[in-house]
Amino acid sequence: MRILSRAGLWSARTGLFCLVLKVFGGGVLASDLLAWREAGALPELVAHMEVWLDEHTDLPRRSAAPEIRLTSEATVAWLAPMRAASDASHTRGLYDPDSETIWLVRPWNAKDPYDVSVLLHELMHHRQAGQGHWYCPGAQELPAYRAQQAWLNALGLEPDVNWVAVVLESGCTKRDIHPE
What we know:
This protein is mainly alpha-helical.
């Protein structure tokens, strides 16, 4: 009986400690991590994502924000026919470095963490475009997917990513560097 009493006391103390930690310590982190959900407009959401990227990547923020447009799968297929041919049904966003435009595929919801992670992924590409030469366009994908994964993991979610395809695309084979 005495062991049960000590176990119960230990459990109560641990529970109280966790509650205090959550209210005074962990609650601040959790509310900051979820602050993006309170964004009233897309520019405010982008600002939240940029702060997260500032804190979790080495890539500096660009001086000019990208233009962001919602579009259809058909437009993405027209903008990037090679990408659309291989995975058109999975493409949820696209970054055009020439126009500095992020294209988000409809339906897109600023309150859905998976949709917001696509925005974060494309914001990574915007930052990467300001960093100069990449051996091939695919080399940018692995860091962008890793940032997307880290953000979703912090929310307790997992991305739906074909990591084998991402690693292969990021590998920059001779064909990718010097197409013939």
